[in-house]
Amino acid sequence: MFSTPSVTIWAPNDSRSMISAAPTVFAAFALAAVGGRMFSSKQIKDEGTNTSTIVSSEHSFSDDLLSTPVKKVYLFTFPRAHHVHNISPFSLKVESFLRMHNIPYEVISTFKFSPKGQIPYIRLNSKEDGTLIADSNFIIKFLSKKLGIDKVEDDILSSQEMAVAHAFTRMIEEHTTQIGFYYRYALNMEKFCTAVIPFNWFNHNSSLTLKAWLFLKFWKRIQPIGFKQKMKYVSFGRHSDEEKWTISCQDIQSISNYLGDKKYIFGDRATTLDCTLFGHFAQFLYIPLDFPQKKYIQENCINVLRYVDRFKEEYWSDWDKTV
C-alpha cells in the first residue's frame, strides 16, 4: 500500500516498512494506474470491518470472545508461492500451528492488509464479518488461550523453557529473519520474484494480466529501495553485509546448539516455538537463493536441516502439492 506523505513499502511481515520519499504522489498514481493498489486500514474498514470485532491486542481477549465456539478459522495471507508455500514466514508459522493442533481452517488468498497493516490475520467462523485478529503472535496467543493449548504447553514446558521460547521467537523474528529479508529484497529482489512468484500470483485463477505485470515490475523496483532505507534505522543495518551474515548465522548456531539431537526444540513433542522456527527456516532452506544462512546451515548445522525437514514431513505431508 502507498500513502501520502510517505510511501509504505509492502513487506510480507507482521509489520510494515515506512520510508520517506519525494515521488510519493507519483507512486500512488502509478499504482492506481496499473490497478495494483494495496489496501489501507481505512479501506478495509470501509469494506465492512466496522461491523465486526477487531482484536488489536492481548488485552482485547474478552470473556465473550473467548467463549465463542471456533467452528472454522479463515486465514488471510498472500497467495501460494513456489518452493516455500508462502513468502511470509509469519503466515507459514500460523498455518503450521493450525495444522499441528488440527484446527479447522481455510486459507483466503489476499493482498489486503489488516487494519493494523499486517498480514497474516484471521477471522473466526465467517470470512466476511467474523472477529478479526492480526499479528501472528496475537493470533497464536488467542487461539492457544481459547482452545486450552496454552495450558497444555504450560504443563509440558518448564518456566526456563518458556523463557527460551520467548527469546528464540524474538531473536529469529526481529533479527535473523530481518537480515534474511534484506538479502532477498534489497540485494536479490529480481531473483527472489523469479524463484517464488507463480505466473498467476496476482490473479489466482487466471493468467497474469498486463496490469498485474506492471504492478509486479513496480514492486520489484520500489521494494529494494524501501528495505535499504529500513536498514538505516536499525542497529544491525549499519554493519557490512558480511557482518550481517555473521551475526545472523550466530543466531542459527545458538538454536542448533540448543536443539542438539532432539526431535524438536524441547523434546519429542512439537510446540508453538517449532511452528515459528519452521516458518522462518523454511524461507532460508527451501527458496532457491544462495542465502548465506542456508550455506551455514548446510555446512555447520545439519541438525537444523534435518529438524526442518522432519517438521515438514510430519505436519505438511501435502507440501509438494501446495507449492
N to C succession of SSEs: EEHHEHEHEEEHHHHHHHHHH
Number of helices: 14
Radius of gyration: 19 Å
* Shape category: globular
Strand order of the largest sheet: 3-7-6-4-5
Relative helix content: 40-55%
What's the total count of β strands?
7
Approximately what portion of the residues adopt beta-strand conformation? Answer: 5-15%
- Terminal CA distance: 26 Å
Please identify the structural class as seen in this structure. alpha/beta
Overall pLDDT, averaged? 82
Which runs of at least 5 residues are low in confidence (pLDDT < 50)?
A: 1-12, 15-51
Largest sheet: 5 strands, mixed
Structure characteristics:
globular, disordered N terminus, 323 residues, alpha/beta, two-stranded antiparallel sheet
What is the topology?
Layout: E1 6-9, E2 17-20, H1 24-34, H2 41-46, E3 54-55, H3 63-67, E4 73-77, H4 89-100, E5 105-109, E6 121-124, E7 132-134, H5 136-147, H6 149-156, H7 159-187, H8 189-196, H9 210-231, H10 241-259, H11 272-286, H12 292-300, H13 302-315, H14 319-322
Parallel strand pairs: 3-7, 4-5
Antiparallel strand pairs: 1-2, 4-6, 6-7
Structure description:
With 323 residues, the chain is α/β, with parallel strands linked by helices. 54% of the residues lie in helices and 8% in strands. It has a 5-stranded mixed β-sheet with strand order 3-7-6-4-5, covered by helices on one side. A two-stranded antiparallel sheet has the order 1-2. Helix 4 (89-100) links the parallel strand 4 (73-77) and strand 5. Helix 4 packs parallel to helix 5, helix 7 (159-187) runs parallel beside helix 11 and helix 11 (272-286) crosses helix 13.
